[in-house]
């Protein structure tokens, strides 16, 4: 192409570019479906925020700026590789996490993704697509799986303005976006005097203060219509209204995971007691009604309710979920303490739910070689057999969650013979399962992705540790990675899971040293501990364990 009457080389280039763009637009408007070209360039440095998405072959998760989330909440979906080294995966959770919108239509098996002023519409089984309302041809026909649309990730992200790369040695796909600041991206406010992590630590004087009323209002403000609460990060501020727009997918759903719902119920009960404001009492009652409605026919509680999916439908002891629920129901049933306001009908129903929940605990204690041990972190909701949680949390006996189950059982005023047997069996197992003479050590290493690693070293003076998980046949420590394959040793765990998950716990130590002796004294039972290992020099008398 030549341009007459232009003396400046730069001007000639600009004019040619403009003419070329006009020609392309004219062709696009007259032609039906054409292949949509990749962006082929890095993101602009325009004002905004840089967000980088990463997916790794074989791992059922994605990360945004290094923060990991599950690819499909509750399932174990891992991306697949298409010809040309392009990934095939569901992306609706990713788009929403980036601040966009993802709308799935089950009847037409289609999806509309919108981000940063751009949109892509796709339908399962067809390469016909729409980008910003114009017909184009996708590089791969999407597929409808488990109520979700799987797509060619590279192609879709390119249409949404990303700069994509494939790292073959690491089998890792990344897509970088420059996105404007939005309310969703701003997320939930962090930090301050009262955060999600210390909500339960506020005293009686706080709840009678003006600040206590403010926090009570904030807690009420993000209660869901079903009466429960979503799970927030530990440093989420509760002195300003929670940005609900930043909560999407399962992040917006009610759960008992990580103290969610139970912590808020207690906070509102205390806010009512301190301020006398009826709306706080009513919010707490709605929360209690949620717990009663969510109880599974087995007597337990699922991690999420209603409409849980995947492992989130499991009966869960993880993070003390069921123990927390039962402690509230016990107080509601007795109409005591923070729940003295409970009516007779609510009290009666809470008592029945409590009895069913206690029965579930006794029924699900794991037996190995004829001996009672501990509990799995989660159980299949239909068979009540130990179940898998996240991809690296295999069916097992939990060295962590079992501790607070025992604490709950020891808190029962008049334990039945069945409860006593459960406590003694679990205590005996925890004592035998302790790992002596080792410690987990952090090693700095700037050549590694996170700049450090964790290793296990021998140390005869180290305090006892417990594995987070033990296998259900031999009772030996159990480890895994995101591939869900069992491993016998910590050093066999993949690097990311080795440094981003705590495979050891010391929670059993204070329970065995303090809580158990107090329980023995109160109930008149005899100790099943072989010896008080904490009263001897660490490593000396434990060498044979």
The rough form would be described as globular
Question: Which structural class do you get from the secondary structure elements?
Answer: alpha+beta
What fraction of residues sit in β-strands?
A: 15-25%
Instruction: Describe the oligomeric state of these chains in a short phrase.
Output: single chain
Largest sheet: 6 strands, mixed
Segments where pLDDT lies below 50 for 5+ residues? 1-40, 539-545
Compute the separation of the termini in Å: 84 Å
The strand line-up of the biggest sheet is 1-11-10-9-8-7
Please state the average pLDDT score.
88
Number of helices: 14
Number of strands: 25
Radius of gyration from CA coordinates: 28 Å
Helix percent reads 25-40%
Report on this structure:
With 545 residues, this protein is α+β, with helices and mostly antiparallel strands. The protein has 14 helices and 25 strands. Strands 1-11-10-9-8-7 form a 6-stranded mixed beta sheet. Strand 21 and strand 22 form a beta hairpin. Helix 6 runs antiparallel to helix 7. The longest helix has 22 residues.
List keywords for this structure.
five-stranded antiparallel β-sheet, globular, 545 residues, 14 helices, Cu_amine_oxidase-like_N, disordered N terminus, six-stranded mixed β-sheet, 31% helix, alpha+beta, Pectate_lyase, signal
Short description:
It contains 14 helices and 25 strands.
In terms of topology, how is this protein built?
Elements: H1 9-30, E1 34-35, E2 49-56, E3 61-64, E4 67-70, E5 80-82, E6 86-90, H2 92-97, E7 101-105, E8 110-115, E9 118-123, E10 128-131, E11 134-137, E12 143-145, E13 148-152, H3 153-159, E14 163-167, E15 172-179, H4 183-186, H5 204-207, H6 210-221, H7 262-275, H8 278-294, E16 315-316, H9 321-334, H10 344-364, E17 367-368, E18 371-372, E19 378-379, E20 397-398, H11 401-410, H12 417-433, E21 438-444, E22 452-458, E23 466-467, E24 469-470, H13 495-500, E25 504-505, H14 508-523
Keywords: Signal
Domain Copper amine oxidase-like N-terminal: 82-169
InterPro entries: Cu_amine_oxidase-like_N, Mao_N_sf, Pectate_lyase
